[in-house]
Amino acid sequence: MSNTFITSSPYHWRNRYLLMRHGHSQANEQGLIISSPERGLGGFGLSATGEEQLSRVVMQWRWQAPTKVVHSDFLRTTQTAERVATAFGLTLEKEKRLRERYFGELDGQADSHYPSVWAHDAQSADHQQWQVEAVSSVAARMYAVIEALEQQCEGETVLVVSHGDPLQILLTALANKPLTQHREQPALQPASITMLSMTGLGS
């Protein structure tokens, strides 16, 4: 599990944020890109490995206890959020803007196509090759979730459960780095948690 501190954000955060990638999923197991609501909302939930990961994460929890859980409504992220929320007696809040990046024509195909998309990402944050969702679009919707939470509440520890690419893109944006460099972020492993360090609230 990662425990990274992002310190270059211009914000003086009103809340603490724990960014969590979903646990190992059936899509990971089968080596498939599952990025559309048609495939991701009702199918391709956690694998047996993912279930074990979540059990360990909850049992060995070493971060601040969450007081709020916000998650992508895909099945794999919902199941991940449920495991943590149940452990802490919290309710879930679905947030469509935390969904997986849409991979267009590559949806449902082998995940060996990812590197080709990322190579284009490194050239342009606005590209939509294969009708893939642009990195800039992903960054905007992910960042908007944090902005909304900052406006809605204060003093919360918010667990934000999303997907690998969207979270790495968000972390790149928060670190004020070019979005074309999002794959230079350390890869977020399934069930990993990254804690944002907040000026004024400590960490």
Whole-number average pLDDT? 92
Alpha-beta classification: alpha/beta
Summed up, the helix count is 7
Q: Strands of the biggest beta sheet: in what spatial order?
A: 1-6-2-5-3-4
Largest sheet features: 6 strands, mixed
Shape: globular
Helix content: 25-40%
First-last Cα distance: 17 Å
Poorly predicted residue ranges: 1-10, 199-203
Q: What oligomeric state do these chains adopt?
A: single chain
Order of helices and strands: EEHHHEHEHHEHE
Number of strands: 6
Give me the Rg, rounded.
16 Å
**Strand fraction:** 5-15%
Please give a structural write-up.
- The chain is of the alpha/beta class and 203 residues long.
- 35% of the residues lie in helices and 12% in strands.
- It contains 7 helices and 6 strands, in the order ββαααβαβααβαβ.
- It has helices at 26-30, 37-40, 48-59, 75-88, 114-121, 135-152, 164-174; strands spanning 5-6, 16-21, 68-71, 92-94, 157-162, 193-196.
- It has a 6-stranded mixed sheet, with helices on both faces.
- Helix 4 links the parallel strand 3 and strand 4 (92-94).
- The longest helix is centred in the C-terminal third of the chain and has 18 residues, at 135-152.
- The radius of gyration is 16 Å and the shape is globular.
- Mean pLDDT is 92; it is low at 1-10 and 199-203.
